[in-house]
Structures are given as structure tokens and as C-alpha cells.
Amino acid sequence: LGFVLVRFLRGRKRGFAAELLGTLSIWAALLIGGGLFHWSERLVTTAATISGHARGLIGMIGIFIATIIVWRKTRRAIQRWAEARLPSPEQQRRWGGLAAVAQALGVGALLFLLASTIPVGEFRKPFTRGSVFGRVVMKVIRPAYLAQTAASPTR
Questions:
Q1: Positive/negative CA dihedral, 67, 95, 33, 131
Q2: Whole-angstrom Cα distance, residue 113 to residue 76?
Q3: pTM for this one?
Q4: Which of 4, 91, 131, 142 could bridge across to 104 with cysteines, CB 3.0–4.6 Å?
Q5: Cα-Cα-Cα-Cα dihedral of 127, 147, 140, 42, to 10°?
């Protein structure tokens, strides 16, 4: 609860445009994490085939630089979109706090999902059955995550 409160205050200070990208990233990783791996694997495999397999250090550096350029352009586009939708500083603060809370809940859910995979039951119980948040994550998010990973094609 303290983490959520700190994130809310930080989100109000930074604003919606600054918090939106992190919130989208966390929830994308949480909700489509299993399928995202297979999509990215397919993307890298296809890119390597098309480029004739990245050759050595020069190819790897080129791919790294291209990834950074695409990431920065995407980040700027999302920030501009958020600033255009909420031009008022008060709206930016209010929605920034809410986006930060959503981000904090996503991080918490991700950590609880990871903790639910601990093989020793006594260590897993406080996360899966010992808290209301843990029970909600196990009932709502974990089945969706497991269904997504089961539906993803494997090699």
C-alpha cells in the first residue's frame, strides 16, 4: 500500500505524459507476456533471415542502434499524444497519479505472479492465499496469463 501511495505522489508530480509509457509497458508485459515472447522471437528470426543473418559485431551494433531509435520515436509519440489529450496541468497531475497507481498495481501483480511459481508451498502461500491482492491476482490475472501461454505455439 505504501508503494502505491508513493507511486501516486510521484505520478502527480511527473504528470500523465511521463507515466503513461511505463503503465502501458507493465500491463503489456503482465497481460500478454507469454505470447509476447513468441511474437518477438518470430520478429527477430524473420529479421535475421531477411538481413542475411547479422554478421558479427557490426550487425549487432546496427540492430542495437535501430532499436534505440525506434524506441525513442515511439516514446516521444506517446508523450505527445498524452500531452495533446490532456493539455491542462491539473489534468496532467490527476491522470498522472492514476496512471502511476495502475503501474504500481501492475508491478505488484507481476511480482505476485512470479512468487506464485516458487516451488515450495510454504513460501508461496503468503503471496497466493495470504492477501486479498494475491487472491485477486491468482483468480483473475493468472488464468488469463496461463491461457495465453498455453495458446502460444512452441517449437
A1: positive
A2: 31
A3: 0.63
A4: 4
A5: 80
